[in-house]
Amino acid sequence: MNIKQYSTHLKAFLLLVFLQFQAEIVLGQSSFEFYEEGKKLGLKNEKGEILIPAFYEQLGWSQGLNMPVNGVIGYKKEHWGLISVNNKVITGARYYSLQAIHKNLIIASIKGKFSNELFYGVINFKGDVVVDFKYHSLKPLDELLIVSERKKDKSYYGLLSQQGKTLLSSDFNNISYFKDNLFVFTNANKQKGIIHKNGLIKIEATLDSIAPASGDYSLIMQAGKVGAIDSSGTILRQPAFKAIFTLDDVETFRQFEIFDADHHSLKSFYCDTLFEISSDLLAVVRNEFYEILNTDFEIVYRGQSLKSLSAFRKNVIVKNGVYRIIKYNGEPVNENGFDTLLFDKNYIYGNSRGQWDIFNKFGSNISTLNFDSLLVGSNNLIPVLRSGYWGYIDHSGKMAIPAKFDKAGLFIGNMAEVNYLGSRRIINQFGEFIGESNYDKVTIGKANTARVVKRGRTDLINYRGKILFQTYNQLSLNFFGYLESTAEGKVGLISHLGEVMLYPEYDSISEPKNRRYAVVKQGNKTGLVNFKGFWILPLSEETQEICHVNDGFISIKKNGQYGFVDFGQRLLIANRYEKTKPFTSELAAVALNDKWGFINKKEQLVIQPTYSYVTPFRNGISVVRRDGKFGAIDLQGKDKIKIEFDTLETTTHEFLLASKEDKIGLFNQYGDLLLQPSYTDIRPTMDDHFIVSRRGLYGLIDANGRYSIPLKYFAIQEISHGKYICLETSTTELE
Predict the structure, then answer these.
(1) Domain locations in the chain as residue ranges
(2) 499-504, long-range: CB within 8 Å, 24+ apart, which pairs?
(3) Could you tell me which CATH number the domain at 372-472 has?
(4) How far apart are CA 229 and CA 182, in angstroms?
(5) Please, which of 90, 94, 134, 264 could form a disulfide with 127 given CB 3.0 to 4.6 Å?
(6) What is the average pLDDT across 596-624?
(7) Contact 548, 513 (CB under 8 A)
């Protein structure tokens, strides 16, 4: 039985109790009738004789039926009091409510001495106080009373007899009826247990739900695991199952094991699924119930069906109606949660009821001031809006730059763009204005510099406001600095510090080669410059193309053929090849007659051109293709991996995956065979291992091709460096 069914049954039970009370009240009350005089009420008997004169604003009870009960009735004269049907005033009009629950008891309320809060108690039909007026609420349940008291703005529930004897003190988050003399109680952690009315705990508060007693057993749930108890609170089935259909027909969870790379067990779980949120946090899911664990497998968070789940550093971010932040030790950042959460690399920004708070990577609130809005992503000071103006706060939450700007931008380095009194300006990290008073456009870039445009002129300024470079041409970011482009389409190169490396008289300047060089073209001339703008190869009509720069050799194209020159423009290898690749391991691939071979730096043909595809040598081997099949050769041109595979691909660790007839094998980075091509899947891991699969089972091998986790699991998933989730009891893939 689920929680919704439980709630429905409980409501039905309470309604039945209420109707029984009302039926008891109604019996024998048809001999009375109310009458009205001068807008006041009185009471007559069946003969029309006046029992209570018409002196009262209202007769009856503040809730429910209004007829007398056990010879008394409530009267209202600004407040409520108790009077007999013989017109004898039993109590003064001092109650804010009177409710007759049956012939023995009346629930009443009074106002607190120091507040407008109502406090509930019970009086009898003689007006005597049976239960003191100290409760925030009071509800009848069979022959008992469920009461609540306010402690630190929270309600805590207890159980009383109708004579006012405390059966359960007011220490529980909730109390509800289970069966006979048993009650379900909820503690401060929202965990449920079962307790007898005499205070004896039958089941400790470790359960998430307890269904109402029905038939031979009731279902209980603990962390998404289902169990069963009988009507006396005795556990028949421990909460360990995915589902219980009957006591003898149950469904179990799948078994997950976490191992290290040496197959040492770290933790075992029975659940629906197990997955990594981050390298520090793990999620265990059972019947849509989530448990979030840290790396010590301590529970950080637990709760029902989440709409979203993520992590910020070691903090858990969950959403179920509202966003919540839970620290690595399980401590919530804000009990009430947030309507909106934003992130950047340093902070979490939470908005609740229009109020923003800022939390650092440890989940600590650095907000000391109120502000209406903010900008996310600043690498230094945080822009915030206060009282209609923008300013900046520092990492301690204090105002570093006063809120006086109409608009504010993010700090990039030590500079930020602001709008002040209608002018676009730049400030430094001290809030000081730098540069001129009003720019048409501001773009802050690297090296604490900014491009600013004013009246068609572009200036490059530093964080002190010093002008490093000026031009009426366009400036755009480039790997080496800025490209300066003229209206005629010519380009030049400016460093980040405003140094002119190339004047704008060239047709194109390429993106970097080897992060140090750029190819420059001017008309039919081609040249090569380094990152400081010095010419390595001057512009020349003879140079048609510059391809590679590596190991002191520059591959160039002349007269339609490729060769190599050095940094002094001396010809090293004649231009006689159709294509070239860079030198590695003292050899370079060259193409002749659409076939690839290798030459050394003396232009000796070391490996004959017989391949349709080759890669530069790495770790002493080159991947090659011939007649549609792949393999690998060594530096002497001998087959290191036989040329017989359909594919041969390099992994992240430079190992080689080889496929043949839909089966996969593995070679190390030197071309040595580790696994014959008999696997359906081979996946590299973060710690130089490989998850392998064959005949529907999974295992883990090390860099030497030996099994460190046996090939016997239905699925394996890497969750962090050196940790693996292994599924033992199902063929279903891990989510």
Answers:
(1) 30-135, 372-472, 478-537
(2) 499/469, 499/533, 500/469, 500/533, 501/529, 501/532, 501/533, 502/529, 502/533, 504/473
(3) 2.40.128
(4) 13
(5) 90
(6) 97
(7) yes
